[in-house]
Design a protein that fits this description.
273 residues, alpha/beta, Rossmann fold, 3 domains, two-stranded antiparallel sheet, 11% strand, elongated
Length: 273
């Protein structure tokens, strides 16, 4: 649109120069039609700038209407964790839904989440089959149950009802939205299935794809470098204190997420909302 306005302005200048030149020629001509041509040229010299100005006003209006509004605060980028922020991770409810005997449930729970092995799998260095074997070793005698639980683990994921609308609202206000999440390769498939708006995000960094975990400094730097973000223009929402603290050390603002309403209020304190 801007290029169109520039071309229109140049064309208008050229046309006006031609009109001014023709006006001078008609003024000096000695012919029966010279007076009429001179008056017509004068009229066009007045009319053309008015028409061009009207075109430019319309073009500017259309450009402003299609442009995203600029954020009011210095924060331009809102970075979200996924689990327990945009997607509800309900591991205990998932185990309950599998109708396991109490001893089986306890063994599977102890072997899977939360464990250091579960955290490490988010680094994305092993296949899903290799990960299942790791958890099976932590629950000897319950290998089949562990496999069944892990193969359907994405049933533990549920999109919060506010997530899609929240992202769309922030984008409508001119903010760019990103994801920064610790997630395994297999569970990332579940994220993609639940988050049908993922393609509308401005970017995403997943631990299993970059082989680095929050709160390690490297994963935050990957986000900045990949999308050319200035840390001081970013705010990060995560449900884990240590991840938010690491984000602040990396130069971002941070909010420890507990629930949607309180997070929205805290964003308003930064002039976001």
């Amino acid at each position: 649109m801007k290029k169109f306005r520039q071309i229109l302005a140049i064309a208008g200048i050229v046309l006006l120069l031609l009109l001014y030149g023709s006006t001078m020629v008609f003024a000096l001509m000695d012919s029966p039609n010279s007076r009429n041509l001179f008056q017509l040229s004068i009229g066009m010299t007045i009319l053309v700038p008015v028409v061009l100005y009207a075109f430019l006003l319309v073009a500017k209006h259309l450009e402003n209407r299609n442009r995203k509004p600029e954020p009011a605060s210095r924060i331009k980028n809102i970075v979200f964790d996924v689990g327990n922020v945009l997607v509800d991770f309900q591991w205990d409810a998932y185990l309950d839904s599998m109708n396991l005997a109490p001893d089986v449930r306890a063994a599977v729970k102890q072997a899977t989440w939360p464990t250091p092995q579960w955290e490490e799998r988010d680094r994305g260095l092993r296949t899903q089959e290799e990960e299942i074997r790791v958890f099976q070793k932590l629950a000897p005698g319950y290998e089949e149950e562990v496999r069944r639980i892990m193969e359907k683990e994405n049933d533990s994921l549920h999109l919060f009802d506010y997530s899609r609308t929240w992202i769309q609202y922030l984008q409508s206000k001119g903010y760019r939205t990103y994801l920064l999440s610790n997630v395994s390769t297999h569970m990332l498939e579940g994220f993609r299935e639940k988050m049908d708006f993922l393609s509308q995000m401005d970017g995403a960094v997943f631990s299993c794809e970059v082989h680095s975990l929050k709160p390690e400094p490297e994963i935050y730097q990957v986000l900045f470098d990949t999308y050319r973000l200035k840390p001081e223009e970013c705010i990060f929402l995560d449900d884990r204190v240590q991840n938010v603290e690491a984000a602040r050390k990396a130069g971002m603002e941070g909010i420890v997420f507990t629930d949607f309403k309180s997070a929205a209020r805290k964003l308003e304190e930064y002039g976001i909302g």
